[in-house]
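can u do me a favor
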């Protein structure tokens, strides 16, 4: 029972004023009996109070309500609305009073009642107003059930008004809340209410706008099945849906069906068809729609031709686009700013900025005004093709046209600065953007994040991330993926995993792109266990892996040499109904070669053909590279010829692979022959190494054929780049023509060639291996002046050269300085110096180095042990060499034929030991012909050139 009482919010002074008013009324009519006095209101029951409020409302004495002493509550408001439901004005008046209270707001039930009451009275404007407020109150709630269920409850109690459900459907649709609109649409028929065509059109239109075309088609089928007759707007919307979902050809069938049913498609319908053909690049069919329109006497307008121009611009066919513009004049159509804007944008996208400016000037000459879209298109074009000064000029000159840069203008120029590495300028522009009152969007932050990550400034990127969140800009999947990718590229997997927890906490649990970024980053770092954990986490959180997810995981296993797991990933993907792509097969081919499973390569190719996939240039590149690494140039050459017969043009990678393989196998002349076909011959005039082979025979004949095949394509497609020039220099060094290599290097630099670490390392190794250590160090110094820091491979070459020239002390000093240069010696560094000490007869120092490398966490290789065993055998220390053999076994390093041959030829005493070695070799599957001339040669090659071959393969391959 609600008692009438003084509200705690009413001040004492207010009570006094009200009380004095009652006294004045009483004094005016002293002879009249007072029917109710303030003190009597305390005794009113809930029912009596409700009756009194309702009487006042019916008499429309709304001001008198304020004189009653009661607190507004959900119970009172609902009771009044229920009792006066057939008096809409009284209900509306009381609802308005209740809504204006400072400490009270009507709840969902009250809103639902007033909406039903007003709808029954056909007071639709007021009903929509409160329905809009109701939807706004619940917009943060992901469920529609609360509002819908309450409206249903009021409908069943009041027995009116079903039109409310149609109003709710239309409101959800117009607000883009399509999921909620669909709930209403699916249930509206249960209450004897049929959705209006206008509401259905709104729902269909918003579904198509949001890309939910398949859903729109299903909804349309339901609309027709309920007896609602579509109009031309419905059909036009559906043409759009079919164009985007099942293809424009299905849309054409739909238009024919429309006409069969007696509907006449309008110009908007045909525009939807034209746009459908434009999107899939069928411009001839798009022009065919114009004839269709002409046959039905529907006139083309500026929009029609704008769509055609857009289509040609999208394909980069700017001449055709301009023909359409000129053709408009024949139909007395005047091109507007939008038409010219599309053309300017088209030229900008392909980098023809002079033509873009020409079209802009033509537009201005026609009396049309410059607009923001054209300015932004010009800025974008200039930025895209690295003409930042011109982009800045357009940006700064916008005020001359009375135009203000918008968010897109700023973001485009910020992106241009970041792409060119001018991150500071990008931040300065962002600050100006903020001062101009344009809030940086998530696009702005993403662009800056990408610029910082590209420049390796990960700490600044993380700081910007936190600043972005602090300013209330919610990161999206691009933000997350950009920063995660940046962390992985600098090898900071811990930082990436820490950020990943934050990403998941922000709700990106169903974003495939973000998951793929994580899996890709971990795979590239070789952390396959962690990558697989993310993959299973992805599934657990309800995010469906796509073909990129599976391909990334499979490729990661291939690069690690675990091809069996890669094939299991493929099988799992196919079980999920996702077909293997050509990219996955290409990755598996490389994986098979890496894991030396050559027997399965042909089977995989057969399977690939069976699935209908055709090998592309990457496929042949993987096969050729694989067989070259296996020294099977016959197979590589055969695949090359097969590739060219299929019309595929060899790329620079394939040619470089073949040339490198020839150099590695000592077939220098053949390598030079191929090289001269892809490098400008005039560039090498005077260099003997490019002379043609006079009488090719054997394997040279195949090289000759490939060289001839390159004649037709080299000038068009195989433009020389750093890879080719580096191979040319490496070829000269390999053939010991070091001065030619030096002269070629100088010539290339004059022609704009920018040498890299590989270039200098190749030259340094060449001169070091030839014993010209001073020249090698001069090249190292030259390298430093170019601000190119030598890596450990460079110092390995220098140490090798010093060892070969007998400067062992200097080599040791350089070895100890490597740490000071911020580099860590690797197994090759140690092996080089160990080999030097062994050849100098200082075995004790060599053994100390072996122990030191173990302390540093570097595992000795078979070369390490073989070199030490060879040195010990030469000194006659057979017992220690046998101990090293045992250490190899304990360390899990398998001895090879060189190791055993060295021991055998070390004059081991006692047949028992020889028999033991013989048994071990057989157990390891090594050849037992250890006393053959071949093995003697092998030992000598190990003694004389083991380190040279090892280092050269690292430097050149």
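np, heres the sequence
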């Amino acid at each position: 029972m609600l008692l009438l009482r003084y509200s705690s919010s009413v001040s004492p002074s207010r009570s006094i004023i009200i009380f004095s008013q009652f006294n004045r009324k009483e004094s005016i009519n002293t002879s009249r009996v007072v029917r109710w006095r303030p003190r009597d209101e305390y005794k009113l029951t809930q029912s009596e109070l409700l009756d009194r409020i309702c009487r006042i409302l019916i008499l429309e004495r709304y001001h008198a309500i304020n004189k009653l002493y009661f607190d507004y509550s959900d119970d009172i408001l609902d009771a009044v609305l229920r009792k006066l439901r057939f008096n809409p004005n009284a209900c509306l008046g009381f609802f308005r009073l209740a809504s204006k209270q400072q400490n009270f707001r009507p709840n969902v039930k009250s809103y639902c009642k007033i909406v039903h009451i007003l709808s029954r009275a056909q007071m639709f404007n007021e009903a929509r107003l409160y329905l809009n407020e109701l939807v706004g109150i619940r917009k943060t709630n992901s469920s529609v059930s609360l509002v819908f269920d309450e409206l249903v409850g009021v409908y069943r109690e009041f027995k009116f008004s079903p039109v409310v459900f149609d109003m709710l459907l239309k409101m959800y649709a117009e607000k883009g809340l399509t999921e909620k609109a669909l709930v209403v649409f699916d249930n509206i028929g249960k209450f004897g209410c049929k959705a209006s065509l206008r509401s259905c059109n709104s729902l269909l239109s918003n579904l198509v706008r949001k890309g939910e075309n398949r859903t729109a088609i299903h909804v349309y089928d339901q609309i027709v099945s309920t007896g609602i007759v579509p109009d031309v707007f419905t059909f036009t919307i559906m043409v759009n849906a079919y164009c985007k979902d099942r293809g424009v050809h299905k849309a054409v069938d739909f238009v024919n069906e429309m006409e069969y049913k007696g509907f006449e498609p309008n110009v908007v319908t045909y525009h939807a068809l034209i746009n459908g053909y434009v999107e899939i690049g069928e411009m001839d069919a798009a022009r065919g729609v114009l004839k269709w329109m002409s046959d039905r006497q529907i006139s083309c307008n500026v929009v029609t031709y704008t769509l055609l121009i857009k289509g040609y611009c999208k394909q980069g066919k700017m001449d055709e686009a301009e023909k359409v513009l000129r053709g408009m004049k024949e139909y007395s159509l005047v091109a507007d700013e939008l038409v010219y804007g599309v053309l300017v944008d088209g030229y900008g996208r392909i980098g023809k900025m002079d033509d873009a400016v020409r079209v802009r000037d033509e537009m201005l000459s026609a009396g049309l005004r410059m607009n923001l879209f054209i300015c932004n298109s010009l800025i974008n074009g200039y930025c895209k093709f690295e003409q930042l000064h011109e982009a800045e000029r357009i940006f700064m000159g916008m005020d001359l046209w009375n135009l203000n840069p918008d968010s897109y203008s700023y973001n485009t120029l910020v992106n241009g600065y970041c792409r060119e590495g001018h991150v500071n300028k990008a931040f300065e522009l962002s600050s100006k953007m903020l001062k101009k009152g344009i809030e940086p969007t998530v696009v702005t932050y993403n662009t800056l994040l990408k610029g910082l990550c590209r420049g390796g400034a990960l700490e600044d990127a993380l700081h910007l991330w936190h600043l972005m969140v602090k300013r209330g800009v919610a990161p999206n999947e691009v933000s997350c993926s950009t920063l995660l990718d940046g962390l992985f590229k600098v090898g900071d997997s811990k930082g990436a995993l820490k950020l990943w927890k934050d990403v998941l906490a922000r709700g990106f649990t169903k974003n495939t792109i973000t998951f793929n970024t994580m899996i890709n980053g971990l795979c590239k770092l070789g952390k396959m266990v962690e990558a697989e954990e993310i993959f299973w986490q992805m599934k657990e959180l309800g995010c469906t892996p796509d073909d990129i997810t599976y391909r990334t995981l499979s490729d990661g296993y291939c690069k690690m040499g675990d091809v069996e797991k890669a094939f299991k990933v493929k099988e799992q993907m196919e079980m999920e109904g996702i077909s293997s792509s050509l990219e996955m097969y290409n990755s598996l081919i490389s994986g098979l070669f890496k894991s030396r499973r050559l027997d399965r390569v042909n089977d995989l190719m057969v399977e690939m053909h069976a699935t209908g996939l055709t090998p592309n240039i990457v496929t042949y590149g993987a096969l050729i590279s694989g067989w070259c690494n296996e020294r099977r140039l016959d197979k590589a050459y055969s695949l090359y010829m097969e590739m060219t017969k299929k019309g595929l043009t060899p790329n620079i990678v394939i040619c470089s692979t073949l040339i490198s393989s020839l150099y590695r196998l000592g077939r220098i002349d053949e390598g030079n022959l191929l090289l001269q076909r892809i490098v400008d011959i005039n560039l090498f005039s005077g260099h003997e190494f490019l002379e043609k082979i006079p009488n090719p025979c054997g394997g040279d004949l195949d090289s000759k054929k490939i060289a001839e095949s390159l004649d037709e394509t080299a000038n068009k497609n195989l433009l020389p780049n750093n890879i080719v020039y580096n191979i040319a220099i490496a070829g000269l060094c390999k053939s010991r023509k070091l001065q030619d290599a030096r002269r070629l290097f100088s010539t290339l630099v004059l022609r704009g060639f920018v040498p890299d670490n590989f270039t200098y390392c190749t030259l340094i190794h060449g001169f070091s291996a030839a014993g010209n250590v001073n020249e090698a160090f001069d090249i190292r110094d030259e390298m430093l002046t170019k601000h190119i820091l030598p890596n450990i491979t460079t110092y390995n070459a220098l140490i090798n050269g010093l060892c070969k020239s007998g400067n062992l002390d200097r080599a040791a000093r350089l070895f100890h300085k490597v740490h000071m240069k911020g580099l860590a010696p690797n197994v090759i560094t140690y092996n080089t110096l160990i080999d030097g000490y062994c050849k100098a007869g200082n075995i004790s120092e060599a053994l100390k180095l072996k122990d030191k490398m173990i302390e540093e966490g570097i595992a000795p290789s078979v070369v390490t042990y073989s070199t030490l065993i060879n040195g010990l055998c030469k000194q006659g220390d057979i017992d220690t060499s046998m101990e090293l053999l045992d250490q190899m076994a304990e360390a899990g390093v398998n001895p090879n034929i060189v190791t055993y041959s060295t021991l055998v030829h070390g004059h081991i005493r006692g047949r028992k030991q020889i028999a033991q070695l013989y048994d071990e070799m057989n157990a390891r599957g090594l050849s037992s012909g250890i006393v053959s001339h071949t093995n003697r040669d092998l030992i000598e090659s190990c003694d004389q050139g083991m380190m040279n071959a090892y280092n050269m393969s690292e430097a050149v391959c």
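The radius of gyration is 41 Å. hope that helps!!
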